[in-house]
Amino acid sequence: MTESPTGIVEARRKRLSQELGRALTHPTAPPDLTPLTEKRKVYLMEEAQDLYWNELEWERVTDEEQVDGEPLAELIFPGFLAFIRGLLLEEVPADSLAGPQPRPEVVEDIILFLAHRLVDLRSEVNGANGDREQRQEEEVLTSRLLDLTLREYHGVSSEEVEGGAGR
After folding, report:
1. How many other C-beta atoms lie within 10 A of the C-beta of residue 30?
2. Is residue 53 part of a domain?
């Protein structure tokens, strides 16, 4: 039986909360922020997906972002993760011409995109489609990227996770 994308996300949130020993916070957009149009929301989702595919393809071409022979998602997806941080930005320098416009609802959609991709990859790895080793590597990278994106979304630092905060 295949896991659902929503089930994957909720299980990872639960695990992260348990690792931290506390409930996760959910960012919200300021109430005075103009809602995104559907066209703008679609545009931002397409940009995130393009970053995912482009950075994944670049890694396939270069095969250079590895530590101890293992690919490192933090180095493979720097533009994607910067995009996520930008969508969650709540403060800007005082001399900025525009104020922050956090869009956590778009990041939620991106998280679901990654979970859908993970489900697809798992079914592809178990099936007979294409290069099995490449699919397995992409599954590992996408899984790690999903975790990193969830940590950004919930404002959890690497130190908190590695230090086992709350234990």
Report:
1. 10
2. yes
